[in-house]
């Protein structure tokens, strides 16, 4: 990687903060500027040595960055793109860490920023969402989806891939359309399922709350992600609603098949369900 490279971060919550911390650890001489809407994370990033500069707004301070990471909610990232368009230098690369790629790629095209954009999505996280929980190893050994535009240079894609590998993640180059179909199935739908399972208990428990009291490891494991931010997940679901809905329908159909096996006492169907899922997993 080039020496004296500079990074900018718009938003330093769990993911943005963790990526910034990882860059500081791996490239200790790099220069990092951070913006965050609330002041406390900015102060923390300066005090712990992650950031060289922390600013209260996205302004001309970002005009000399080589890479700028957009790490706010997916719809907010598009708003910051519009601000950055008139600020960045000609060869700056803007990337993001959002779990939906279609909406930002469409915005990039509309804004004429295709040669300056490489989408990104580290497949890591937690139900905890603030800089307080950020750590420099969060993305280590996690897959990191890279969704470059057709107009961005091959050299910059290679350099960005090197950066991703440098912080310990596993890069995977994928189209943004395919990415959104994949995450609808393995990330977005499971969050809705977890939330619906928790609400199933909430609405069907007895006054003694035996369901809640007796819920053990298995239930807690598969519903942990139901503790995630509702604001964040509303935005994610509304920006990837078609893909999620398509997979949700397939899931509903499979549940109806399971219900039919139960109603008709078809043990072989239940056996095949568990056996097939066990073997595939």
Detailed description of the structure:
52% of the residues lie in helices and 13% in strands. The chain has 281 residues and is of the alpha/beta class. Helix 3 runs parallel beside helix 4 and helix 6 (176-204) packs across helix 10 (241-263). The two termini are 37 Å apart.
Fold blueprint:
Layout: E1 6-10, H1 14-26, E2 31-35, H2 39-47, E3 53-55, E4 67-70, H3 74-85, E5 93-96, H4 102-111, E6 117-122, E7 143-148, H5 154-166, E8 170-173, H6 176-204, H7 210-214, H8 217-223, H9 230-239, H10 241-263, H11 267-280
Parallel strand pairs: 1-2, 1-4, 2-3, 4-5, 5-6, 7-8
Antiparallel strand pairs: 6-7
- Number of DSSP helical runs: 11
Placed side by side, the strands forming the largest sheet appear as 3-2-1-4-5-6-7-8
* SSE class: alpha/beta
Strand count, sense and barrel status of the largest sheet are: 8 strands, mixed
Radius of gyration: 21 Å
| Basic shape | elongated
Helix percent band: 40-55%
Number of strands: 8
Strand content: 5-15%
Query: What's the pLDDT, averaged over the residues?
Result: 95
Order of helices and strands: EHEHEEHEHEEHEHHHHHH
Distance between the termini: 37 Å
- Spans where pLDDT lies below 50 across 5 or more residues: none
């Amino acid at each position: 990687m080039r020496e004296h490279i500079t990074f900018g971060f718009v938003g330093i919550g769990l993911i943005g903060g963790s990526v910034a911390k990882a860059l500081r650890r791996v490239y200790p001489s790099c220069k990092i500027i951070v913006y965050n809407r609330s002041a406390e994370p900015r102060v923390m990033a300066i005090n712990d040595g992650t950031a060289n500069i922390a600013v209260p707004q996205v302004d001309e301070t970002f005009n000399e960055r080589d890479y700028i990471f957009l790490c706010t909610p997916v719809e907010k990232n598009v708003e910051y793109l519009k601000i950055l368009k008139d600020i960045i230098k000609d060869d700056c690369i803007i990337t993001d860490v959002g779990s939906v790629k279609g909406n930002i790629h469409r915005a990039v095209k509309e804004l004429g920023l295709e040669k300056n954009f490489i989408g990104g999505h580290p497949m890591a996280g937690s139900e905890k969402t603030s800089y307080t929980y950020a750590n420099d190893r969060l993305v280590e050994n996690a897959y990191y989806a890279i969704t470059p535009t057709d107009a961005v240079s091959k050299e910059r894609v290679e350099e960005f891939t090197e950066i991703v590998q440098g912080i310990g993640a596993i890069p995977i180059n994928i189209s943004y359309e395919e990415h959104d179909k994949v995450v609808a199935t393995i990330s977005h739908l499971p969050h809705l399922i977890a939330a619906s399972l928790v609400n199933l208990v909430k609405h069907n428990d007895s006054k003694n709350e035996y369901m809640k009291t007796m819920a053990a490891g298995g239930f807690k494991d598969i519903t942990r992600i139901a503790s995630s931010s509702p604001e964040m997940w509303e935005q994610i679901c509304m920006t990837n609603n078609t893909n999620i809905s398509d997979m949700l329908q397939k899931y509903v159909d499979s549940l109806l098949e399971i219900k039919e096996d139960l109603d008709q006492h078809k043990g072989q169907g239940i056996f095949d369900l568990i056996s097939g899922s066990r073997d595939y997993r």
